[in-house]
Each structure stands twice: as C-alpha cells, then as structure tokens.
Amino acid sequence: MTPQRRTYWAVWMANLVSAMGMMSFLPFFTSIVEELGVTTREGKALWTGVCFGAAPLMAGVMGPFWGAFGDRYGRKLMVLRSMLSLCVFVGLMQFAQTPVHLLILRLGQGVFSGFLPPSITLVSIGVPKEQQGRVAGDLQMAMAAGAIVGPLLGGWITATYGVRAIFPFVAAATGLATVFVWLFAVEQRTDAERAAPAAPPGLKPVLQGLARDVAELLSNARTRAALVILFVVQFGIGASNPQMELFVRDLNPDFMGLSRERATGLIFTAMAVTNLIVMPLWGRYGDRKGHHWALLVAAAGSSIALFANSLAPVYVALLGTRVALSSFGAAMGPCAFALAAEEAPEHRRGASFGAVFSVRTFAMAIAAGTGGILSGFLGIRGLFATCGVAVALAVVWSARERSQRKARERAETY
C-alpha cells in the first residue's frame, strides 16, 4: 500500500471512530442538562442550545487559524491535536456538576478540536482538482458511518447506565483514533512546499498568511455565494438538531416499543445512514455539474424538508422528513470543501478548508443557541418553518447572483 493510501485509510478510520464517539452524546444534551439540575422546559431548551453550540462556535473562530498553522508546521500534527483534545475535554465532562462546568468544557473542546478540515487537507494533497469532491465526500462518509452507530449506542448507554457513562466511552474512542493516526498516517509535502524556503518562526507570519488566504477566498464571487448557502442550510439543521429530543417527547412516540431516548437516537442514526449513502453521490455530482450548482439544488431541497419537518403530525412523519433533510444537507460538506479546493493553491489549502469549516461551525453554533431561544417564542414547529423560509430566501438570492455572474461572463467573452 502506498503512503498516500495508507494515510487515507488511517485518517478515514480515525474519523469513523471519533464520529461514533461524538454522536453517542450530542443527540442527548437535553438529558445531560437534566442530569445537571435544569428542570424547566425553557431552561432545558436554552442550556441545550447554548452547550450544544459552544464547541462549534469556538471551533469556527479557531478553524482558519489551525488550518494556516497546519499549512506551515504540519497537517498531521493538526489532526493529532484535534483528536487528542476531544479525548481530554469530553472525558472531563463526566465530572461536570453544573451546566456552567459543561459549557466551559465545551468551549475548551471547540478551541482545540475540529478534526474534519485537517483530515481532508492531509488526505487531499496530491489529488487532482477534478476529484476533490469525491475525496471530500468519501472521507466524510467515515463521519456518517460513525454517526450511524453513535446515536444508537448513546441511547442504549443512556437508558441502561445513565448519561454520564457516555463520556468515558467517547474519551477512549477518540484516544484510540489519535494513536491510529500517529502510527499509520504519513504527511506528504507539495512541490511548492519543497521548493519554498523554510517558514519563519512565530505567530505573526501565520496570521499574515491566514489573512491573505481568507481574503483571496472571499474575493471570489462564486465562493462567497456558496458560503452563504452553506451557512444558511447549516443554520437550519443546527437550530433544529438540539431540540429534537424535546420534539420527540412532544410527539410521544409509540414506535416499535422504543423508549424516547432510543427513538431520538433512531432519528439521528437514520440521518447518518442517509448521509453515508448520499454524501459521495453529491461529491461526484458536483464534480460533474459544478459544486456551486449542486449546493443550490441541495439548499432548495433542504428548504422544502424543513417546512415538512414543521408539519410532522406523528413520530414516523418526523423521522421521514428528517431523512429527507439529511439527504439534501449531505451535499454541503463535500461540495463546499471541493469548491474551496478549486479556488486555493494546493500548498495553502488548509486555511481555505478552515474558512469553510468556520462557516459551517459558526452556523451550527449560532443556530444552536438561537434555536433554543426562538423555540421558547415560536415553538419547535415555528422554529423549523422559520428556518425553511431563511433557506428559501438564500436560494433565491444565490440563484440570482449566479445568473448575473454568468451574464457578465458571457458579455466579457463577446
């Protein structure tokens, strides 16, 4: 096996194990904050959203920095850093005594975690641009596969041993993933990196390079429009996911004799199965038709699915509409990362991937807290419908921008 293939499979397996661990507790934040003494419905919704969103908020802040740092000092190092931080901070969550303790640990997790961008950067070096969508989609399949098992396992652990028992399991899983990457992944250098002089030491050059890379990425109109689509769709998904356990309780499911915890886990597992199947297809579709176009199509479908979520009268309908949402939302990751790869030089890809990751995580972070607040005023159904409207408006705007840009390009040709 070549070093490139060995690195790919090492990172793929590490992402699989880490995703399984993370998704074993993320769907059950309502139970976690209940364990920490929150009793009112409004308090549960608020603390669920805030704690859920704290990690992606800080990961969004730090994502471009870690990407630029990895471009200069090693991408494998960044994968190890992110996975080890999950092991430490999630492991410490079992000792949290109040929601504030949990919030602090989630903030710390977000500062140092975020394993997807460095993972994609590490395995994408040397891959042709026309195959970037396939590579990003295939690697994210590992996360989808881990997310299939994680919610079911988390639901079983919560129902059998209590919610705190999940945290040492996650710490062990992510610790194993760290060792796996350390032993088997091999970092490759680009031709530009081998020819370039050694990077000057210190933080200032990293920040200067980061500012340059992000400015170049955002100067591209096609990329800007795609990032808007990415943000709004992830906002819609991120606002609804933390409230799912409460919504399942409202519907009082009587489905195959499942408890409410396991019924909640089934929704997330079904969404993960859908991601696993559909994500690589979106990557290949974007490679053929254009990644911006693929994002537009997927966003339109996401808007319809969010409206359908808001109308679900029974648990089975909610399960079906969440699967539909997942089938469209699966396009966001591979197509956005592939679009960034097309617009960035190979040796500076880490910062561009970090910017895409930041947009996704900022959306999730803001959405989690905002969703917890808005659900108190609009109700969960009203929250879903509002997200559907926001996504629809973003699709209309982005489609108009795309049409105007193509008209300008045709005019310049003639």
How would you explain this protein's 3D organization?
The chain is mainly alpha-helical. The chain is built from 17 helices and no strands. The protein has helices at 3-22, 29-35, 41-73, 75-92, 99-112, 116-124, 132-161, 166-184, 191-195, 203-218, 221-240, 244-251, 260-289, 291-311, 315-329, 332-343, 349-413. The mean pLDDT is 78.
List the helices and strands and how they pair.
Elements lengths: L2 H20 L6 H7 L5 H33 L1 H18 L6 H14 L3 H9 L7 H30 L4 H19 L6 H5 L7 H16 L2 H20 L3 H8 L8 H30 L1 H21 L3 H15 L2 H12 L5 H65 L1
Descriptive labels:
0% strand; mainly alpha; 414 residues; single chain; 83% helix; 17 helices
State the shape.
globular
User: What is the averaged pLDDT score?
Assistant: 78
Beta-strand percent range: under 5%
Structural class: mainly alpha
Instruction: Give the fraction of residues assigned to helices.
Output: over 70%
Count of helix runs = 17
Order of helices and strands: HHHHHHHHHHHHHHHHH
Q: How far is the N terminus from the C terminus?
A: 50 Å
Task: Compute the number of strand runs.
Answer: 0
What kind of sheet is the major sheet? none
Rg (CA only): 21 Å
* Uncertain stretches: none
